[in-house]
TrEMBL record:
It comes from the Bacteria. This is EAL domain-containing protein. Residues 23-277 form the EAL domain.
């Protein structure tokens, strides 16, 4: 029986494609890294495109493995999403970002806005709104200073419950941004129903603002759409002055990108804030 079992295990092993094995291995390492507190957040400034004033920051998840390599979130978040690991990680992100927000407020950066990314499964959790309330209370931060970045995918197949949940979240004072707008299966009617505060223009449209008439047309359309719906628009991935000027001309109000600042770990971000404020 032992032989047989071993034989089956080997067969199973060989059936697993190499890519599946790499993914399982990465997931195991991510789970261990999360337990060992090897994840951290980096904060990237969000600014007023006209004045350059810092309005807030987006918290971005970072994973540095023991040998010092950085695993990009685009690689491990989709994986964590499938395994449900994004729920505990997401709650940790929320609490860590709220604590950082409190520290900034205590250092005189009042009215600072902290944006966090919320995954699809985290948003769909029945207790999500309660978790938000608890984190805000525990960290003593003003709900008006917290923003959630959601992608259009949260609404797929759940439009009514998504509308309700966003309503409940906004009723608490928290603002909501539609992230990566224009890259998914966006529907204008869905955007209108979801009733968010801010529209984030995806980097892919921003990058071609000066190079390519077709895609810069998309950025312009999204900005016009935002204005039509009474939303503030924020462009992500703004890398140079030409893009900033062009976006401003198109009517975009806010920006985020290497032109204004790279994502920085908490202490570096605090030091940076002290130089710009
Ligand atoms: P995103 O939400 O679209 O975040 C913006 C990405 O653009 C970030 O990549 C940021 O570092 C990068 N970026 C910012 N400015 C520039 C620029 O000027 N030029 C270029 N080339 N890139 C710029 P990052 O940090 O690698 O994050 C990738 C994605 O991972 C995020 O895309 C987001 O979808 C996801 N993510 C990050 N943190 C979290 C998190 O805490 N929770 C969840 N659920 N997802 C997260
Ligand atoms: Ca985001
Ligand atoms: Ca984005
Ligand atoms: Ca993006």
């Amino acid at each position: 029986a032992k032989m047989l079992q071993r034989g089956r295990a080997t067969l199973f092993d060989e059936d697993l494609s190499a890519s599946a094995r790499v993914r399982i291995n990465l997931l195991t390492r991510l789970r261990a890294a999360f337990c060992a507190e090897q994840l951290f957040l980096a904060y990237q400034p969000q600014v007023d495109l006209v004045t350059g004033r810092v309005l807030g920051a987006e918290a971005l998840l970072r994973w540095e493995t023991e040998d010092g390599t950085m695993v990009p979130p685009d690689e491990f978040i989709p994986l964590a999403e499938q395994s449900g690991l994004t729920v505990p990680i997401g709650e940790w992100v929320l609490r860590t970002a709220c604590r950082q927000l409190k520290r900034l407020t205590d250092r005189g950066h009042t009215g600072f806005r902290m944006a966090i990314n919320v995954s699809h499964t985290q948003f769909r959790e029945p207790g999500f709104v309660a978790v938000l309330g608890q984190a805000l209370q525990d960290c003593q931060v003003n709900p008006k200073q917290l923003e959630l970045e959601l992608t259009e995918s949260v609404a797929i197949g759940h439009i009514d419950s998504t509308v309700e949940k966003i309503q409940a979240i906004r009723a608490m004072g928290i603002t909501v941004a539609m992230d990566d707008f224009g890259t998914g299966y966006s529907s204008l009617s869905v955007l209108k129903q979801l009733n968010v505060d801010r529209l984030k223009i995806d980097r892919s449209f921003v990058q071609e603002v000066q190079e390519n008439a077709d895609t810069s047309g998309i950025a312009e359309l999204v900005i016009a759409l935002g204005r039509q719906l009474g939303l503030v628009t924020i462009a992500e991935g703004v890398e140079d002055e030409g893009q900033r000027r062009q976006l401003l001309e198109m009517g975009c109000q806010e920006g985020q990108g290497y032109l204004f600042g790279h994502p920085m770990p908490g202490p570096a971000f605090e030091a940076w804030m002290a130089t710009v404020a």
